[in-house]
Specification:
Blueprint (H helix, E strand, L loop, with lengths): L2 H15 L5 E5 L4 H5 L4 E4 L18 H12 L3 H5 L2 E5 L3 H10 L4 E4 L4 H12 L5 H22 L5 H7 L1
Length: 166
């Protein structure tokens, strides 16, 4: 199975998954381990495809934002479509302010290292408590993934391919 097949299947999976669980779209450096400890599924759904921006009229942003907003507004990203709400980090003011304007879904701005506010938001939004045991399991999984990515970077593999794996 090549990369495009994996990506296509992930789209189908995201749409199917949204029927049985809450899907949360993450933008930027949001600690997915905290979010997934609430029993939801996270997807990183910001775009990186310049092709989609060719027919997009509101393209006065950087390439990533152009692509992301084009996918959102044109309804071409099942990840964004299937998401119940968005969590975006505070590293780019234009990103989170514009995202709030371009969707009717809830957008939470995660302030870097403000874990307490993120947990409080999720407890309120999802009407469930933070699962510390699940969080610990996810932290271990995250460490394993980071280790594997680190080892991939030691190989003679194109950086773009490693990015796609991430």
């Amino acid at each position: 199975m090549d990369y495009l097949d994996i990506r296509k299947n992930a789209y189908i999976d995201a749409l199917t998954l949204s029927k049985s669980t809450t899907v949360v779209s993450l933008w930027g450096r949001v600690p997915w381990e905290i979010v997934e400890s609430f029993g939801v599924t996270t997807v990183y759904s910001y775009g990186m495809d310049r092709e989609v921006t060719e027919d997009y009229s509101d393209n006065n942003y950087c390439d990533m934002l152009n692509s992301s907003f084009a996918y959102l507004e044109l309804g071409r990203c099942p990840f964004m479509f299937s998401s119940s709400f968005f969590i975006v980090d505070d590293s780019c003011k234009i990103r989170y302010e514009t995202l709030k304007k371009k969707t009717d879904k809830d957008v939470f701005v995660y302030k870097y290292k403000d874990y307490k506010s993120l947990i409080e938001y999720l407890e309120d939004k999802l009407d469930t408590k933070f699962d510390e045991e699940k969080f610990d399991e996810l932290i271990e999984k995250s460490r394993e993934i980071s280790s594997l990515i680190f080892n991939l970077r030691k190989c003679d593999i194109e950086e773009r391919r490693i990015y796609e794996v991430e």
